[in-house]
Design goal:
124 residues, Yope Regulator, Chain: A, 5-stranded antiparallel β-sheet, 5 strands
Length: 124
């Protein structure tokens, strides 16, 4: 899941229309964050964005596939889809798709049940 420095820089440049986007290495790939919300990832010099019911049709209409992190388990996939090349190459279009993915990621974070302090500290 290696990501070249040039590809990472290109993606970050293309995403410059968004608020501050940061990247963090993770499991051989790179996670993309905006305001500490994980909304995209890079793996094997391919960009994937978070998808839910609000934006999945955009990716499926383009014939894009899901991120599948385990080659030996192709049935396992995450809720991240490959971004079409023509979208990546168009900064305005990429920003629009990224905003939809950021909204999907934010909705996912908000829908998770919050753990109480007691529950968080139980294992310590």
């Amino acid at each position: 899941m290696a990501v070249s420095k040039d590809y990472l820089q290109y993606v970050l440049d293309q995403l410059s229309r968004l608020r501050t986007v940061t990247s963090r290495r993770m499991f051989g790939g790179i996670g993309l964050y905006c305001d500490d919300v994980f909304f995209g990832l890079l793996a094997d010099d391919t960009l994937y964005f978070k998808v839910d019911d609000s934006n999945r049709a955009d990716y499926e209409a383009e014939g894009m596939g899901r991120f599948r992190p385990f080659r030996d388990k192709p049935h396992l996939s995450l809720t991240y889809y490959e971004v079409p090349a023509h979208v990546l190459e168009d900064g305005e279009a990429l920003a629009s798709w990224a905003r939809k993915s950021l909204a999907a990621a934010t909705a996912t974070v908000k829908s998770r049940p919050r753990k109480s302090r007691e529950t968080k500290n139980r294992g310590k």
